[in-house]
Amino acid sequence: MEQPRQRAAANSNPLTTVAFLERAPTAYADCPSIVYKQTTYTWSQTHRRSLQVASSLSSIITRGHVVTVVAPNIPATYELHIAVPMCGAILNTINTRLDARTVSVLLCHSEPKLVFVDHQFSSLVLEAITLFPSNAKVPLLVPITDDEPSPSSTLGFIDTYENMVAAAHHHRKELSIATGIFINTLSSLLDWSVPHHPVFLWTLPMFHANGWSYTWGMATMGGTNVCLRNFNASIIYNLIKRHNVTHMCGAPVVLKMVVSNSPTNEHLEKPVQFLASGAPVPAPLLLQAESLGFRVSHGYGLTETAGFVMSCAWKPQWNTLAASERARLRARQGVRTIGLMQMDVVDPERGVSVKKDGLSLGEIVFKGGPMMLGYLKDPTAESSCMREDGWFYTGDIGVIHPDGYLEVKDRSKDVIISGGENISSTEVESVLYSNPAISEAAVVARPDEFWGETPCAFVCLKDELSETPTEEEIIEFCRTKLPHYMAPKTVVFKEELPKTSTGKVNKFMLRDIAKAI
Amino acid sequence: MEQPRQRAAANSNPLTTVAFLERAPTAYADCPSIVYKQTTYTWSQTHRRSLQVASSLSSIITRGHVVTVVAPNIPATYELHIAVPMCGAILNTINTRLDARTVSVLLCHSEPKLVFVDHQFSSLVLEAITLFPSNAKVPLLVPITDDEPSPSSTLGFIDTYENMVAAAHHHRKELSIATGIFINTLSSLLDWSVPHHPVFLWTLPMFHANGWSYTWGMATMGGTNVCLRNFNASIIYNLIKRHNVTHMCGAPVVLKMVVSNSPTNEHLEKPVQFLASGAPVPAPLLLQAESLGFRVSHGYGLTETAGFVMSCAWKPQWNTLAASERARLRARQGVRTIGLMQMDVVDPERGVSVKKDGLSLGEIVFKGGPMMLGYLKDPTAESSCMREDGWFYTGDIGVIHPDGYLEVKDRSKDVIISGGENISSTEVESVLYSNPAISEAAVVARPDEFWGETPCAFVCLKDELSETPTEEEIIEFCRTKLPHYMAPKTVVFKEELPKTSTGKVNKFMLRDIAKAI
C-alpha cells in the first residue's frame, strides 16, 4: 500500500497570482493589456512597469509590510495589484468613497509603510492623516499624478509613482503566496466562461475584493483592461463601442444606471457579458438588460472569499421557461463555484443544516481554498467568523431550494422577527419594488410591544404620478402578495433614502427613525 | 508587520477533483453527463452511480490501495475516475493496447487490490496473470460486462461492476487529495476555453493521463461525455452529427484519420475544437483540418504532468499571416499554461538555460503544482527526473524561440549527434514528410566512424506514384531544405514502418537496422 507522500521541490511551488503576470509578456506579448484615455499598454509593457515598481518598492518594503492604495481604476492601481505581491507585501486597497474619518481609522489599524495616493484623493488622505492620534506613525505617501500636474501640497510625499516606474533597480524576488486568490482567480474565470483576449471594462472598483479577482484574471487570459477614472452611462456606452468591450461587472445598481440611460435604446452591436453581484438583479431590470444585449450572470461572495464563490449555474432547459420564471431562477445565488469546496446553510442556534425547502432560513457558511487567511490584527473578529467547526460564517441569511440552489435572503442583521416568525426584509422590499408607483424601498424592523418587531417600510414614490398611493394602499398591496405577517405595518414616505458611503441604503439610520416613530 | 499565517480549517480544505463531481448533481442535475450507445445518464445519475461504486469499493479497499482499470472509454471507466479517488485509493489505468507480458509486469509492480476488466480485455488480463511469478499475489478481478453477456471464464472474478453499482452500502468518505490534478484540471479547461455544457467526444483514451484531466474537467463544466468502445472515421462523424460534438482530443494521427476520411469533404455543420498533443500537427494536415471546420489547438505535456502544461497560445495578430507561417507558429508547443509555475530549457551538461534563439537545444524542465507526486515504488526513476535543484526533467529536447515559445525538437534519445552538431530527428522527418512522394518517414542515428553518427532515414512511398524517387533524390531534396549536415546520409525504403503497441514508430528497432547496414 502506498504511503502518503512528502511533496518534492518540483511539485510544491507555491501558488501565486504573480505567476499569471509573469506568463503574460510571453503568452500575450504585444496584445493590449490596458487602455486608458489615449494610452494603450501591451502585456510586455505592463509586466515591465510592474516589475520596475516592484523593484523600487523592494528598497523600501519587505515581506509582511502593508502597502495601501487609494486610487480609482487607473493603470497604476492595476500595476500595484502585481507589484505589491511581487514584493511579498500585503496590498490594502481602500474604498475611495469613504470619508476622511474612516480612512484615518483604516490607516491607523493597518499601519502601511507606504500609501499610494491618486491626485483625486490626496486631500482625503491628507485630511485622514491629520486625524491620526498623536502617537500614530504617519506612512510615506507616493502620489499618483496620472495626467494631472503634481499636487500643490506635497506634505509627506516621497517620489511619484511614475518615478518609481522609471527607476530600474534590481528586484529582490519575494512573492506573496496566495493559494486562495490563485484558486479563486481560476474559478471565477471558468465560472463566467471568460475566453482568451476578453475586453474588460472596469466599472467594478478594483478596491472591491481586488475586482473580484479579475485584476489577476485579465493577466491570466490576456484580456484588455479598459480603465476609467469616473464614469456615467454615456462614458460606458462610448467605451463599449470604441473598444469592443466583452465583459463588465458591477452591482445591479450599475446595470440599472446603464440600462436606464441607453442612448438609443438600440441593441448593442455585440453582446456584453455583465456579472452582477452584491444583490440579485430585479426581474424587470434583467429583462430590460437582456433586450439591450447584455447577458447577465449572477454571483455571490464576500471580500473574505476573494470575490464570488457562488453563482447561479444556468441550465439550458430553463431557456424555454417564461421570462418571469427565468428571472426568478436567475435571482438566486445558486451553487458553489468550483473553487469553493463546501457550502451550507445552518441554523445559527443549533448549527445543523436547514431543510432544503426554499423556506427555512439559516446562516450561509463556506469551506475551502478561497477563504481569507484572516483579518489583519483582529483575532476576535476572525475567530467569530472562522470557527473551530471548520466553517467560515458569512453573517448572511439564506435558504436552500429543493434543487440545491442557494438564495440569499438577508444580512443577518436585516432579519425582522415578528411574532416568532422570521421575515426577510429583502423579500418585502422586492414586493414593494413591484409596485408601479414606488421608485425605491427599504424595510427595517420597528420595535413593537406585542409582536416584538414589525416591518416598517420606507418608500420613495416616482415623479409625475397621476395619483399617489396612501400608506393603507401600499400595505394592502403587500398583503395581496405576501403572507399577512410579512406585510409592513408602517409605511414612511421619503424624498430619498439615506445612503452609506458605499451607496447602500443606510439601514442603521432607518432603524433609528423607525424606533422613534 | 504581518507574520506568515497558519492556515485555519475553513481555508485549508484539501483540493480534490472529487469536489467537481460532488457539485455536478446540483449545478448540472438533469443535464446529460454520459451518452453511450442508446444510454444517456444525467449528472445526478453519474454522481449516484459513482458514489455507489465507491461505497462498494470502500468495503474492500482503503486509502493507499491501488485499483486498476483495463477498459476502453465506456461509462464505467469514467465513473471509476470518480469512485476510486472517492475512496482515497490510487487509480491505475492500463493502456489497453499493451501486450499480456507488459500488462503482467505492470500488475506485478503496482500490486492492485482490485482490477476492473472490460470483457473486451478479459483474455488479455487473464493471460497476463498466468505470466505472474509464482510468488506474486493475484488481484481480485471485477468484470465490466457492459452490454455483453457475462464472460465465459470467470476465473478469479468477483462481483460484476453493475452489481457494485447496485449495492448501496454506506460510503466511508476518504478522499484522494490531489492538488496537482485539481490545478491542472482547471488550467486545461481555461487554456482550451472550454465553456459550460461542452459535448466531448472521447477519442482520446482515458488511460492517457486520465484523458489529459478532461475526465474531471467534464464534471467541472457540466459537459456531456460521448463514450465509445472502438472508433473509426465514420463512427466519429456520425457521433459528431448526432450529439453536436463541440470538443475532442487526440494525437495528430487521430486528426489525420478523421480528416482523410471525411465522408463528404464538406464543412462540419458546427466547428469542432480539436486539441492535439503528442506531436505537432503537420502544416498540410492543419490546413486541411481547418478547411473542414476543425479548430486545432496544440498542447504538450506528459503523464507525469497530469496532462498538458504547455500550449501554443495564439495571438490574434497571427491570423493575418500566410497559411504556412500560421502552421509553423501553431506547430510550436508554446508557453506554459497557467497551472504550471515555471518552464525552462537547460543545457543538460551544465544545467544552465539555453539561449532563446530557436536553435540552442536543451532539455525541457518544469516546476509547479501539476507535477506528479512521484513514481509508484520507483525511487530511482523518480530521483532521476525530480531533481534536487527543484526541477522536473522531462527527458524531452527543445528550443526556446526569441518570442519565448517552446518548440519540442525530440525525445532526448532521438537526438542525432553528427560531427559535434546536434540534429533533431523530427526536424529531418518533417522535411521528408514535405516530399510529395513520401507517406511515412522516421529518422534515427546510424553509427559512423568519421562523424560519430549520421542521420539514417526510413521512408515509405505513396501508392501509385508515376515515378518513384531514388535514395540520392531524397537526400538531395533534404539538402535543399536543411543545413548540409542534417540531411540523411542513408535512405532505406520500407513497405511500412515498425510500430510499438501504442502506435508510435519503433525507433529502437530502426536503430538496430541502421546499425546493421
Automatic annotation (TrEMBL), chains A, B:
Q: Give start and end of each AMP-binding enzyme C-terminal domain.
A: 427-504
The AMP-dependent synthetase/ligase domain sits at 22-147, 178-376
Q: Which UniProt keywords apply?
A: Ligase
Q: Which Gene3D superfamilies match?
A: 3.30.300.30, 3.40.50.980, N-terminal domain of ligase-like (3.40.50.12780)
Q: Which family does it belong to?
A: Belongs to the ATP-dependent AMP-binding enzyme family.
Q: List the PANTHER family.
A: ACYL-ACTIVATING ENZYME (PTHR43859), ACYL-ACTIVATING ENZYME 8-RELATED (PTHR43859:SF57)
Q: What is this protein called?
A: AMP-dependent synthetase and ligase family protein, putative
Q: Which organism is it from?
A: Theobroma cacao
